[in-house]
Amino acid sequence: MENNTITYLVQEVIPEAEDVVTLRLRPLQNVIPPYKAGQFITVFFPETGHKEGKSYSLSSSPNESGMSITVRGVGTFSNKLIAKKIGDTINGSLPYGYFYSESEANAMILVAGGIGIVPLMSMIKCSRKVFPRRKIILLFSNKTPKHIIFRNELNELSRQSDGNLVVEYYLTQEMPKMEEKKGRIPVSDIFRCYEDFTDSELFICGSIEFVRDYWRGLKGAGVPVEKIYTEAFF
Question: What is the separation, in whole angstroms, between the first and last Cα of the chain?
């Protein structure tokens, strides 16, 4: 993969939440490579000792004029990445990966934990632009309100959706003050959404434990495993 790298120019650095930034990127060749909402690129910093690089999901939609990755600063590699400034360059791969919708019409039920919102945000933006009548339900878990990534943008997309995008926030370490709910996302909440839209695709993204627990819970509740798409962030 590293032998097939391209160079990305950092065009904008956008603070999103505590220790999270979005890097707006454009290939130096000035041609946006094709990709699907939900895919990622691998970034290479050989000097960190990670010769294989690390993967970061695209938070942009394929119909945008540029590309973006949204990164939480955890560890040397990610902190080096979020320290990039406008005009800096990054060596990375072309977009790839298999975490994306295979439908144009079926409802999507999205379950995100923290930074796991990133590829789901790409799916939401793409669907709202290309398939605006598609029903999307997002259940989004965070520690506290200050950890909620894309909150303003999600709320605005929901407001403009005529009820086709529903966003539910859950807080695990702080009492709700606005529209959030307290605690982890109950499997019963997800399954209730599935019962309303049994033809839906169900996407789960977050930490390994987050994804594992919800996959097991939904499988145990009777959701067919072929309808559950997962991606775990390390």
Answer: 19
Model confidence pLDDT, tens digit, residues 58-101: 999 999 989 999 999 988 899 999 999 999 999 999 999 999 99
Which three-class secondary structure state does DSSP give residue 53? Answer: strand
Q: Which residue has the tokens 């970034």?
A: 43
Asked if residues 191 and 214 have their Cβ atoms less than 8 Å apart, the reply is: no
Summarised one tens digit per residue, pLDDT across range 98-153 is 999 988 889 999 999 999 999 999 999 999 999 999 999 999 999 999 999 999 99
How far is the C-alpha of 32 from the C-alpha of 26, rounded, in Å? 7
Tokens of 15: 């603070």
Largest Cα separation within the chain, whole Å, is 50
Residue pair 79/54 in contact by the 8 Å Cβ criterion: no
What is the Cα–Cα distance from 229 to 219, expressed in whole angstroms?
12
Considering the domain delimited by 2-92, tell me its CATH architecture. Beta Barrel (2.40)
Q: Residue 184 — φ and ψ, nearest 5°?
A: -70, 160
Q: Domain boundaries in the chain? A: 2-92, 108-233
The predicted model scores a pTM of 0.94
- CATH 3.40.50.80: does it fit domain 108-233? yes
How far is it, in rounded angstroms, from Cα 152 to Cα 89?
A: 28
Rounded CA gap, 203 and 211, in Å? Answer: 10
| Residue 60 and residue 38 in contact, taking contact as beta carbons nearer than 8 Å | no
- Residue (of 96, 103, 152) closest to 130 by Cα position: 103
Do 204 and 198 meet the contact criterion of CB atoms below 8 Å apart? no
